[in-house]
């Protein structure tokens, strides 16, 4: 785990290009979505965001608390991503984003990677629920901010949405996305990657 913001210089030389400030536990940089007290981005966290902007590294606020998401988006001068999560207006879950968080990420020009984590999709998750989250964010905030962050590597084989059991099922999702397929499947993410890594 990162302990000193200045370690980012070394980590970038080693190939790091994207960093998350927290996971399901608080760090000295930021509060997590599981935090008992949402203190948001700390001074050390501000240093991380500033250095990421300076070094052209991607800042990922997945697993972060609401205040952390808002703080990071206000601080960053470059697009911010939420690599894997869904919309809380569609399905209430601690890992999902409310409208204020989504709006903050969109204002940075960032993207939200919709996830296949079953509990974040619906009570009886299926491929069509993934589309519901995509349509909510796309129609309410702009399709240029919708991308995919399945988190399949974090799921056990028996804990997957019906009809979306593996990456091969992305072809079925493409059919559902219609005119927005290219944007969601790759264009939006590539735009952010290029803007940050190759300014």
Write the layout of secondary structure elements.
Elements: H1 7-13, E1 18-20, H2 43-55, E2 58-60, H3 66-75, E3 80-81, H4 99-107, E4 112-114, H5 118-121, H6 127-141, E5 146-148, H7 170-177, H8 181-197
Parallel strand pairs: 1-2, 2-3, 4-5
Keywords: Dipeptidase, Hydrolase, Protease
Protein name: Peptidase M19, renal dipeptidase
GO molecular function, one term: metallodipeptidase activity
CATH uppermost class of the largest domain: Alpha Beta
pLDDT averaged residue by residue: 94
Number of folding domains? 2
Q: What is the approximate shape? A: globular
* CATH-derived topology of the largest domain: TIM Barrel
Number of helices: 8
What is the CATH architecture assignment of the largest domain? Alpha-Beta Barrel
Classify the secondary structure makeup into a structural class.
Answer: mainly alpha
N-to-C series of helices and strands: HEHEHEHEHHEHH
Strand content: 5-15%
Uncertain stretches: none
Side-by-side strand order of the widest sheet? 1-2-3
End-to-end span in angstroms? 27 Å
CATH-level-4 superfamily name of the largest domain: Metal-dependent hydrolases
Rg, rounded, reads: 16 Å
Helix content: 40-55%
EC number: 3.4.13.19
Enzyme class: hydrolase
Keywords: Dipeptidase, Hydrolase, Protease
Protein name: Peptidase M19, renal dipeptidase
Keywords:
199 residues; two-stranded parallel sheet; 42% helix; 5 strands; mainly alpha; 7% strand; TIM Barrel; 8 helices; three-stranded parallel beta sheet
Give structural notes:
- The protein has helices at 7-13, 43-55, 66-75, 99-107, 118-121, 127-141, 170-177, 181-197, and strands at residues 18-20, 58-60, 80-81, 112-114, 146-148.
- With 199 residues, it is mainly alpha-helical.
- The chain has 2 domains: 1-78, no CATH class; 80-199, Metal-dependent hydrolases (TIM Barrel, Alpha-Beta Barrel), CATH 3.20.20.
- It has a 3-stranded parallel β-sheet.
- Helix 6 crosses helix 7 (170-177).
- The mean pLDDT is 94.
